[in-house]
Amino acid sequence: MSDYYDDHDSGAPTEPSSVASPTGPNNREPPPPVEENGRLYHPRGRYHFPSDQAEKDRLNLQHEAWLLTFNGELGLCPKIREMGHNVLDIGTGTGVWAIDYALKHKGSMVTGLDITGHPSPGPMNYKLEVDDCEDQDWQWLGNIDFVFARAMTGCFETMEYIVDQAKFHLRPNGWLEIQGLEGLCLRLFTQQLNWTREQVLEFCSRARQQLKDRNIHAYLPM
């Protein structure tokens, strides 16, 4: 799924009065990871993905897969090609998307927010903030032009809170883009399986419902 929302009803866009601060008030060092089954994880059980080098490699490979899916573009909404002055990447991981956006739009200020924090070298207009976006208000970010999130299914206790925070802090004509399951399935299933768009969306909807059903268990050969 790649959903994007705008705020066109709020009036004409304005020039930014402030950009993201060099350091958020709650910015902190990531806590030491815990080792489980030979992998390193964030100590808070709410985030279930690893935080080791193998995971960094997976995230970077995932980014390349999304670029192939979108013909080299970083996303679908207008702020991908039009510069956003103050941009927030939620769950930035290695920061690869945020860094690419910052390199493409050198006049922007791009903040990568992540609970684990995988520092990567980037341009001067990119910075990493280590924090949990569900544990704080986003007021320190100022007004945001573009909020981006990718493959965050299962990472939040409530996605509604993230969407509400994004909508509250977006500037007039700001955008929120959330990339997930349907964005990949739409292209693959329509091109390779000749499904219609409606068939893909119905399939993804059923898949989401089954993911929530605790009576369904999946088993893989080991």
From TrEMBL:
Residues 1-49 are annotated as: Disordered. Pfam families: Methyltransf_23. Residues 1-10 have a biased composition (Basic and acidic residues). It comes from the Eukaryota. Residues 15-24 have a biased composition (Polar residues). Belongs to the methyltransferase superfamily. LaeA methyltransferase family. This is Methyltransferase domain-containing protein. It comes from Neonectria magnoliae.
